[in-house]
Amino acid sequence: MQEERKEESVFQFLDNFIKSNSFKTKIMRLNNPQDFRKCFLSRKTVKNSAFTIHYAKNDGLPGRLGINIAKKKVKSAVNRNKIKRAAREAFRKGNFNGIDIVMILKNEKYYDQSKCFLMVNEVFNDLMKR
Description:
By secondary structure, the chain is of the alpha+beta class. It has a single domain (about 25-130), classed as Ribosomal Protein S5, domain 2. About 50% of the residues lie in helices and about 20% in strands. The protein has helices spanning about 1-20, 35-40, 75-95, 115-130; strands spanning about 45, 50-55, 65-70, 100-105. Helix 3 packs parallel to helix 4. The protein has a four-stranded mixed beta sheet, sandwiched between helices.
């Protein structure tokens, strides 16, 4: 009986800890087509050989990220998701508050699967410099 109570209290503590320190991915995603359009109409871009980032200010809200990778350009869902994970991680570490960002894979010829994380970090670092 006492062991069960101890286990419950440990799990409750872990649940509270995870909820307080978790990364709010739902808040930090662009889901609305109007938000994507706003980024495209701002005409502020950062490019590297494979990716293009369109960004716009969002009036003090937390930074939000939208990712667009066409199935025609990267056939494998595993590789598309790998790019998305790399982009979300770079976005999370970059701390882009007050900016909406849309990342697009423009030129699949220059995209190298083995250098995915480096290419994504490169384009986000260019954005941080601006």
